[in-house]
Amino acid sequence: MKMVKNLGLGLMGLGLMTSAQAWTQPTHTKIVKDALKYMGSEFATAQQRRAYDIYVDAAGSEEAAANALGKAVSDVDDFEDTNLGAWYVGYNYQPSPYSLGGIVLSAYGVTVNYTSYWHFLDLVHGEDAHGNAHGGYYSPNVYRQNSDDPAALEDLAAEYYLSPYKLKDSDYKSTEAHYRQGSYSSYSQYQNFDEMPFQPVDHLGMYWYGQFKTAPTFAVIGYSLHAIGDASQPHHVHVSLGYDHAGWEEWVDGRYTEYNDFTRVTDILPAYNAQKSFQDITLQTGNVAINYPQVLTDDSFATRDDAASSLIPTAIAASVTVLTKGINYFYGEGGE
Ligand SMILES: [Zn+2]
């Protein structure tokens, strides 16, 4: 119990101080806030409720805990930890406002942050260049698609604007090293955007979940939950920036309250097991999202409604599982 008491202090002391993407940032936040709310609801199991009590006690209120988690899960999209460039243009974490790409993007009001290239989980192609069974974003995938499934304009545009650029050496040594998670890697793989095998988003989540086990804060468990949210978005497991990626995400955000049904979450939760590894929980979530490829090509209400009715409760259920697993760990019950 002493460990648990310290955990509460850690969450309180560190967590609250921290201040095109998958799902909009508000949707990520809503999913995580709902996960916490669920854990304090009549639907919760004893373990979920125990975890809820610890988060809420540490923050002082459910609202404070939800805000801390909600901010963290959203902050991941704003990390400035992935700079691409070359000696002759310098390195930036987003297109330079003076570059052609930057001018075009700002004309369309689009914000791009290169950190989002770590937010994909490829469940379509096979093993990646790191030896991962499932890789992440990989620009050459646009050439590997067959003619019935042409590369999206957005992926071709990224490839066109970024193809000569390399990953900044210091980001390879920090960001990539964090997300390597035991896989093979070499800086030579990051010399040209065209060939960069970005590490998959389950690794991003594994890294931050690992940090939580070492020094628990709302920030790091919130960051890990970003991987769960991204894995539940079909564009992220089909690995494409295009196919109305942003339009679909905006659509879901606008109708979120029609899909965060706790009865559905309760139906889905028994399929999740908090004893499984963080990676397994993320892959399980991605394997639900992969069943909704139609949202990439069909923007009809029926298609989107069908997908969102499954994916939002799934994302909430998976987030409940991780939030519970994180606290279980400090009771020696964290599983894999
Ligand atoms: Zn993301």
Which features characterize this protein?
336 residues, mainly alpha, P1 Nuclease, 2 domains, 3-stranded antiparallel beta sheet, 54% helix, globular, disordered N terminus
- CATH-scheme architecture of the largest domain: Orthogonal Bundle
Largest sheet entry: 3 strands, antiparallel
Give the helix level as a range of percent: 40-55%
Q: Any low-confidence stretches, pLDDT <50, length ≥5?
A: 1-20
Dominant shape: globular
Q: What order do the strands of the largest sheet run in, or round the barrel if closed?
A: 2-1-3
Structural category: mainly alpha
CATH homologous superfamily of the largest domain, by name?
Answer: P1 Nuclease
Return the CATH topology of the largest domain: P1 Nuclease
Ligands, ions, cofactors: zinc ion
Mean pLDDT: 89
Please tell me the total number of domains. 2
Total DSSP E strands: 3
Radius of gyration: 19 Å
List the total number of helices: 15
Describe this structure in words.
This protein is mainly alpha-helical. It has 2 domains: 2-78 and 200-330, P1 Nuclease; 84-195, no CATH class. The chain is 54% helix and 2% strand. It is built from 15 helices and 3 strands. The chain has helices at residues 2-15, 25-39, 46-59, 62-75, 100-107, 141-144, 153-162, 169-180, 201-214, 218-231, 234-237, 245-254, 262-268, 278-289, 301-330, and strands at 84-86, 90-92, 166-167. Strands 2-1-3 form a 3-stranded antiparallel sheet. Strand 1 (84-86) and strand 2 form a beta hairpin. Helix 3 crosses helix 15, helix 4 (62-75) crosses helix 10 (218-231) and helix 9 (201-214) runs antiparallel to helix 10 (218-231). The longest helix has 30 residues, at 301-330. The two termini are 21 Å apart. Mean pLDDT is 89; it is low at 1-20.
